[in-house]
Amino acid sequence: MREDLVKEGEKILLWGGPDANFLTEYRVGKAVHSHRGILYLPKELRWGEGLVSSTGRVFYVIRPSNADFILRLKRKTNIFYPKDIGLVLLYTNFSPFSRVIEVGSGSGAMTVFLSNLLVPPGKLFSYDNNPEHQKTAKENLKNFGKPENVIFRLRDVYVCGFVERDVDIVIVDVPEPWKVVPHAYKSLKDGGFLVFASPNIEQVKETREVMAKLGFVAMKTVEILMREWQIRDVGCRPEHEMRGHTLFYSFGRKTKTPKDAT
Amino acid sequence: MREDLVKEGEKILLWGGPDANFLTEYRVGKAVHSHRGILYLPKELRWGEGLVSSTGRVFYVIRPSNADFILRLKRKTNIFYPKDIGLVLLYTNFSPFSRVIEVGSGSGAMTVFLSNLLVPPGKLFSYDNNPEHQKTAKENLKNFGKPENVIFRLRDVYVCGFVERDVDIVIVDVPEPWKVVPHAYKSLKDGGFLVFASPNIEQVKETREVMAKLGFVAMKTVEILMREWQIRDVGCRPEHEMRGHTLFYSFGRKTKTPKDAT
Amino acid sequence: MREDLVKEGEKILLWGGPDANFLTEYRVGKAVHSHRGILYLPKELRWGEGLVSSTGRVFYVIRPSNADFILRLKRKTNIFYPKDIGLVLLYTNFSPFSRVIEVGSGSGAMTVFLSNLLVPPGKLFSYDNNPEHQKTAKENLKNFGKPENVIFRLRDVYVCGFVERDVDIVIVDVPEPWKVVPHAYKSLKDGGFLVFASPNIEQVKETREVMAKLGFVAMKTVEILMREWQIRDVGCRPEHEMRGHTLFYSFGRKTKTPKDAT
Amino acid sequence: MREDLVKEGEKILLWGGPDANFLTEYRVGKAVHSHRGILYLPKELRWGEGLVSSTGRVFYVIRPSNADFILRLKRKTNIFYPKDIGLVLLYTNFSPFSRVIEVGSGSGAMTVFLSNLLVPPGKLFSYDNNPEHQKTAKENLKNFGKPENVIFRLRDVYVCGFVERDVDIVIVDVPEPWKVVPHAYKSLKDGGFLVFASPNIEQVKETREVMAKLGFVAMKTVEILMREWQIRDVGCRPEHEMRGHTLFYSFGRKTKTPKDAT
What we know:
Four copies of one chain form a homotetramer. Helices cover about 25% and strands about 35% of the residues of chain A. Chain A is built from seven helices and 15 strands. Chain A starts with 10 loop residues before the first strand and ends in an 8-residue tail after the last strand. Chains in contact: A-B, A-D, B-C, C-D. At the A-B interface, strand 6, helix 1, helix 2, helix 3 and strand 11 of A face strand 6, helix 1, helix 2, helix 3 and strand 11 of B.
């Protein structure tokens, strides 16, 4: 069985401990430099094997998780956190065949993650009005995701809205989400899902007011706290370090009866 | 465009507000009874439209989310919470084509969710030693998931282990996860992911000790707190009700060098 | 040594387990009725001893904590939670000799607690505009606190403000705290502390804006989550039940240079 | 009225904003140096007034809170956090006249705080076996607390226990709290309170087992998360920075019937 060989060009995580782990692409003979010495990637590389660096540290060759990709993206913007991305899948009807819009592309964290879960005819349409951001998102997608499942559009969505109609889900992560809501309403299937992410509670309130008027229902706003634990012989305790806040996530579903009309 | 018509047999969520919403299957003429009166489902039903019950309450016809399915499963056991399920996708390399083992099937929450994200040759192998539980999981899968992506196995995993080899991910939710670890090790691809869920910190510690000896690395244990917010004209505040604990989630990746051997 | 005898009229906690514990006043011969049977309080009662009820349940005679008092107050309003009250002591310069104003008296939770920490000339001035609430607060104070350290005033503080000057701390728990801020400013010593408690974030924002204009500095807003743990042989885990929100607590200190004047 | 003058030797907080605030003692003519320039303290200093530093930054003269003292102690050890200290007051029957034992003195955070809440005959007995720690605690107490309310004892409590009897509360913050429990039992009044603080869950479990055998009841273990909020015109949101864990706090009350004896 040869299946456990790493293929040329595959992404590997070199794990030398919590303080020394590197995500890289496998190339025969490639030198990986770090504060733990140099590693030369051998001609045949097996998943799970241990390599020894020039300073004697063992590095294991393991498979990167989806979170590893997200946390190591090249960044121009804030990124979605792994703890939060899962919510988007659970509180919508996401499936591999969904047609999804996201705005903005940002650094491509959501783009990369969703591209890896989509299968044609599933598709992600990724909008941004900042060419620099979208360039970064494209690079990250090429490195860590499946570009064939994504169509990028450079466009001022506040003004011009979206091209697509009958999409299943619209994911909004922009400073003024309320400006996108009417455009999202037009693009969504009836009964479809709008998700938006905002750091401040005022943005949540204003956006939900606009959503309510247009006829979105089943609205819900949540925040997530994730805490890591130290599990050791000498004792188990929560980590001292913890992220106190990332974003508030809000959800709603489109109905055909705008509230103003009733 | 006829695409916004609900098809016979499709699942719909009838939304009459946070205190009155029902997940049901569309059948022409079906009567839906509740404390908010009776609704008769009409011959042509459109996504997003509002139906009026016998007591005058409007119910909107919206698409169920993945969380709606999970929270309404018929239950024989505790179930995974939506806030937690997302972690499993993020902290592994899950893709639609993954080969995944879960034990136990439980009430089928994870089974339903993963089945909806898989595409052949992706497959879920769902083990349980309790025929009653697995019967419930099968029913729930038939109602809310994609049975074609799941193979159920009735088996005492503590003793007999798993049939499959070279799987990408093993998800463990049993009272004594440490007994499953050696079996998971055999079934996993090199570099592959073991995930286990435990309510108590002692279970986490004991299981991670067994994992460390076998050669799992990059271990991580986390817990998630999710808080809903009330967003209203009169003021925004967190909900008073909140779940203080569900499960601790732990992750590790298989290497080829068991620690005992070094 | 007779010191361990409970004195007639002292408050005792009868502890028969987490599901059966009662706060009462010791009277010789008193019958205490509960779902765990009847207890007759004997002629000589010792702290820490076990009494057996008519149904055979053992009840231990233990000293009530400050939290026991607060959680068992007769209530007409929401009350302060023990987890929150500690903040008020820590983020002010409270001492036994402080002169403190509170508004409103509410059901007297803060009143009872502070009265027990004050020593003359320390004093609490407790304002409310609702005679019913203040009557309840007075009863609770008489039962659980030190009435000699408290002066009640029935008064519409929004309109009439406070009588006292040169107080150390003003604690505000009313629906429109911003209306109390100018009155608090007048009553506080220079450099003194204003604390207010609000359920909604909009109240916090509006009140802090008024405070900033008047010249309060060192402002700080916090929220507290408290989680209980189950510690048992079979395993340790957080409780499932948890309070998701009580109140936001905000703090500021008076300076002599109103911001508008600079 | 001259009462708003700062007295020679009083502690003041010089507040130049969240990034520039200093706790110091008032001495006429004293120069306070910082990255915001030099401040000379004038002959007459009034609470609440604004002083201008050599770089033009305004510093307000405000009263330090109890938390300001605690967070600025000279440290040799971990210290109690303000969020946690309040719990000790609420979940015991602490009053200004309580007789309290603490072990260890540590850097004196609890020592300073309690000394400021005690009034004779109330007394704190502060034990430590490390002369260096206790020296630091003494210095901090002299600077920020009331030394007249505290008696220090240098002693190995694991081996020798406590001198006092009939105390109201014993507060334990040592690495092996279970070794102190039998000594605490002897020193406590019947019905009195034992509190212990531990970072790891194993310490909690082991100590509570020893307590249960000796006859402590009404046991409770809690943890506290405190989150600060940014309240600004541009939007309100939780702070990104947050402490994920400090200590678990556990409480119990002494009864006269050791469980082993029944």
